Every structure is written in structure tokens, then in C-alpha cells.
Amino acid sequence: MNSLRQLGFCLLLASLELAHVEVRAETGEQIAKSGNAAGAPACITCHGSAGQGQGAAGFPRLAGMNADYLAAQLQGFQDGTRTNPIMGAVAKLISSADAKALTAYYAAISVIDATGDAAASNSSVAAGEALAKNGAWKNGVPACAQCHGATGHGVGAAFPQIAGQSVVYLSNQLQAWKTGTRKNDPMGLMHGIALKLSVADVNAVAAYYARLPSSSASNGTTKP
Ligand code: HEC
Ligand code: HEC
């Protein structure tokens, strides 16, 4: 009887401990640096110690991006409208409260590497700039700047900053829209555009945006 009582007491303590763990809110910074209780890995292992990303690996910069845009992307990875074997698995371990904390944390970080992707090749940058600023009307491609802003710093929550992301990440995204592994864009806007871009167009426009400095001052809220 006594030991049963003890067991009961232990169980009670254990459930209190569990309840304690559940109510303890982890801050965005804590999760980014150490992961969360559900087993999500630390974001910094892939996205860099200050959210600057790892260009060559295709891990995007998160610092200074619009919080609502980032949250919509996590949602996309969770509901399968954006698929990626690595980030999809991570996103499924993030609760909506975690997503809120994490995206607010990253949006508020200042971009430390504002010089862009130095690895972008020079050769196609001019062609990329022309496409970005003027589009290619004969192929039905609008100017990227119309939606992403004159300097690629994005507009509001809907049109993300693309300046300063790496060549690898930018081309991966355009490719993902072509093949349909990413289909979370409003009204299929990017899918329609990506389908009209040739391989040379993708390489050129990615090289151009990768070399533009990114901005955290805008946080995607500047006017085009
Ligand atoms: C093991 C590596 C890895 C870890 C850890 C990781 N990510 Fe990612 N993340 C990626 C990759 C790869 C992509 C790009 C996927 C693609 O190409 O579609 C990505 C993309 C994203 C995006 C989309 C960005 C955009 O501009 O659309 C967000 C948001 C994001 N990650 C948030 C997080 C958060 C928050 C954490 C920590 C809880 C995290 N990631 C941990 C690899 C990782
Ligand atoms: C009509 C408006 C519009 C135009 C023009 C446009 N985009 Fe986009 N773009 C969007 C929207 C909206 C999103 C966000 C999609 C989402 O919510 O998933 C986006 C997202 C992107 C992303 C993903 C960024 C990230 O963080 O993952 C890339 C890369 C991109 N666009 C490149 C381009 C390029 C290159 C061009 C020009 C060839 C272009 N866009 C023209 C509307 C546009």
C-alpha cells in the first residue's frame, strides 16, 4: 500500500513535470540555437549562427526576412505545398507558437553579410539584370522588380526579399516551381513565371540577385 502510494506520488510528480515542460515557452532565439523539446534541430546548424544561411549548400538566409513570409513558408513545408526532404522534416517538429517565435526572431536580426554571394559568376549578371529590371516581354516574363522591389528587397509579407540569397538557393526555388515541388505561391504567380524561364535565364537572374546586397532595414516592408 505504502509503495503504491509512493508510486502514485511519483506519477503525480512526473505529470506535473511534463505539464511544466509543456507550458515553458521557448524563445525564438533558444530554439534557433538549441532546437526545441519536440526534437527540431537547432536552426543555426544549417542557416548559420546569425541567420546568414550557407550559400553553397542552398540553405537560405533568414535574417531580415519578413516574419509573415517566413511563417507562411513554414506552413507550406508542413502542409506539403512546399516540399524539401530536409526542411520538410524540420518544419513538422515546429508548433505554431514556435513558428511565431522563430520568425519574429529571424525577422529582427540584422544581416551581417550584406555583400551578396561573391561566388556568382560575372558572365551572366548583365543578362540577369536586364531580366530583373525589364522582364522579357516576348516570352511573357514580367520584370522581377515589379513584385520584388527595385533592389530586390521585397515588398510586404507577400513579395519576399531575394537580394543576397545564394545562386544555389535562388535557382533551386525557380526549379522547384518549374517541377511543382513548390506550389505555395499565391495564384501560382511564380510557377507561371518559372515555366517561362530557360536554364540560361535562371542562371543569369540568380547570379544577378545573389550579388545584390541584402537588407535587414527593409524587412521586406520597403516600397518598390
Ligand atoms: C538540416 C538543415 C536545416 C535545418 C536544421 C533547418 N533548416 Fe530551414 N531550410 C533548410 C533548407 C535546405 C531550406 C531550403 C529548402 C528549399 O530549397 O526549398 C530551408 C528553408 C527554410 C525556410 C524558407 C526560407 C525562404 O526564404 O523561403 C525557412 C523559413 C526555414 N528554413 C526555417 C528554419 C527554422 C526556423 C529552423 C529551425 C527550427 C530551420 N529552418 C532549420 C535546411 C534546414
Ligand atoms: C507578379 C509578381 C511576381 C513577379 C513578377 C516575380 N515574382 Fe518572385 N515571387 C512572387 C511571390 C508572390 C513570391 C512568394 C511566393 C510564396 O509565398 O511562396 C515570390 C517568391 C520568389 C522567390 C522565392 C524567395 C524565397 O525566399 O524562397 C524567388 C527566388 C523569386 N520569387 C524569384 C523571382 C524572379 C527571379 C523573378 C523574375 C524573373 C520573379 N521572382 C518575379 C511574385 C513575383
DSSP strand count: 0
Work out the radius of gyration. 21 Å
Shape: globular
Structural class: mainly alpha
**What's the CATH architecture name of the largest domain?**
Orthogonal Bundle
Q: SSE string, helix = H, strand = E?
A: HHHHHHHHHHH
Ranges where pLDDT stays below 50 over 5 or more residues in a row are 9-23, 220-224
Indicate the percent of residues in helices.
40-55%
When the domains are counted, the total is: 2
Distance between the termini: 74 Å
Average pLDDT metric: 87
Identify the CATH class of the largest domain: Mainly Alpha
Percent strand equals: under 5%
CATH topology of the largest domain: Cytochrome Bc1 Complex, Chain D, domain 2
What do we call the CATH homologous superfamily of the largest domain?
Cytochrome c-like domain
Alpha plus pi helix count: 11
Q: Major sheet, described briefly?
A: none
What ligands can be seen in this structure? heme C
Report on this model:
The longest helix has 22 residues, at 2-23. Helix 2 (28-34) crosses helix 6, helix 4 packs across helix 5 (85-91) and helix 9 packs antiparallel against helix 11 (199-211). The chain is globular and about 50 Å long. The model is unreliable at 9-23 and 220-224 (pLDDT under 50). It has eleven helices and no strands. It has two domains: 2-108, Cytochrome Bc1 Complex, Chain D, domain 2, CATH 1.10.760.10; 125-211, Orthogonal Bundle (Cytochrome Bc1 Complex, Chain D, domain 2). The chain is mostly helical. It binds heme C (2 copies). Residues 31, 40-41, 43, 45-47, 58-60, 62, 65, 70, 73-74, 84, 86-87, 90, 94, 102, 160, 172, 176 line the site of one heme C (HEC).
